[in-house]
Specification:
By secondary structure, the protein is α/β, with parallel strands linked by helices. It has a single domain, classed as Zn peptidases (Aminopeptidase). The protein contains ten helices and seven strands. The strands form two sheets. It has a five-stranded mixed beta sheet with strand order 1-2-4-3-5. Strands 6-7 form a two-stranded parallel sheet. Helix 4 crosses helix 5. The longest helix has 18 residues. The termini are close together. The protein binds 2-acetamido-2-deoxy-beta-D-glucopyranose (2 copies). The site of one 2-acetamido-2-deoxy-beta-D-glucopyranose has 4 residues, from helix 5.
């Protein structure tokens, strides 16, 4: 499932300022007094949702840089009971930063004694337990997902420990993998407040791309292409993800972006690669629509289908969802 938010392609005018929309959203969640946008969407006011969140307030007010991401994930794991989580890295970015994944599911047993943090540290697959993955920050400057995936991991682990019935059921039956940052190099290059630089600034400066100037979200082989698949030499992040996907059996995936506020479901392109307006169905279209709607209908702004993002005020999405290719065609997914 390709669901989440999406930064629109840089060639469309007024796209990257959409990032503001998400930044705004984060601001609003933090300060109900400024929640004009949310009020308009008739959302309920945000309240503290998890036990312990109040005393943790300080942890939610800044981005985790460099090694802090690894330690934040270690802390998230430690919030759960023993045997619930495994931290490992699926490979490295161009500049050598680890691509961390936190695996969460009940009954994992103790981690390997040698302290290995490579892909094998994930531990064995559990028969009959569906694997689900969430990937964030593949555009280095679309940063909100990187944070919220850490919060989500922590909440899943802490919720299991305190016996939250939904979360216990979830992690008893589902094998969840959280990869908060696929582009840690771009993230470190991005500057808070630089929203939109990618449109006009020097190439790569915004942090959207990896350190070799490659957009990771445009660097996967394309299912409708008949030629040679693209070389992955400049995108070790993509290669690591593909290898990891091949070693596993994920049945559902979410990919979180910054930018417009919509749940976009597969496919993202069609054989004819028309720029926009072609509904490109998977054979599971109904399932994807259902899941996209479930996501969007629980999001105070997304569910309105009219996010009023700066630069794209008029853009609307029925029920807050869209087929990716119908929105705009992107090859190499
Ligand atoms: C690229 O981003 C889109 C959202 O625009 C997402 O649907 C898709 O899954 C992403 N592709 C990959 C390979 O992650
Ligand atoms: C979750 O799994 C544990 C360990 O097998 C079991 O004791 C518990 O009853 C399960 N809870 C739910 C809600 O499935």
């Amino acid at each position: 499932m390709a669901s989440g938010w999406d930064a629109r392609p840089p060639w469309r005018p007024g796209r990257l300022p959409l990032l503001l929309c998400l930044l705004l959203l984060v601001q609003l969640l933090r300060s109900p007094a400024r929640a004009a946008h949310i009020k308009k969407a008739e959302a309920t006011t945000t309240t503290t949702t998890s036990a312990g969140a109040e005393e943790d307030e300080g942890q939610f007010d800044r981005y985790y840089h460099e090694e802090e991401l690894g330690s934040a994930l270690r802390e998230a794991a430690a919030a759960g009971p023993p045997g619930l989580a495994r931290l490992f890295s699926i490979g490295s970015s161009v500049e050598g930063r680890p691509l961390w994944v936190l695996r969460l599911t009940a009954g994992l047993g103790p981690p390997p004694p040698d302290g290995d943090l490579g892909p094998d540290a994930a531990g064995p697959l559990l028969p009959g337990r569906p694997q689900v993955k969430l990937v964030g920050n593949m555009h280095g400057d679309e940063t909100v997902s990187r944070q919220v995936l850490v919060y989500l991991a922590r909440e899943l682990a802490a919720g299991y420990r305190r016996g939250d019935p939904r979360l216990v059921r979830l992690l008893n039956t589902t094998d969840v993998y959280v990869l908060p940052s696929l582009n840690p190099d771009g993230f470190e290059r991005a500057r808070e407040g630089d929203c939109g630089l990618g449109d006009s600034g020097p190439p790569g400066a915004s942090g959207r791309d990896n350190s070799r100037g490659r957009d990771l979200n445009r660097s996967f082989p394309d299912q409708f292409s008949t030629g040679e698949p693209p070389s992955l030499d400049d995108v070790p992040e993509v290669r690591a993800l593909i290898e990891w996907i091949r070693r596993n059996k994920f049945v559902l995936s979410g990919n979180l972006h910054g930018g417009s506020v919509v749940a976009s479901y597969p496919f993202d392109d069609s054989p004819e690669h028309k720029a926009t307006g072609v509904y490109s169905k998977t054979s599971d279209d109904e399932v994807f629509r259902y899941l996209a709607k479930a996501y969007a209908s629980n999001h105070p702004i997304m569910k309105t289908g009219a996010p009023h993002c700066p630069g794209d005020e008029e853009e609307t999405f029925k029920d807050g969802i869209t087929n990716g290719a119908h929105w705009y065609d992107v090859e190499g997914m």
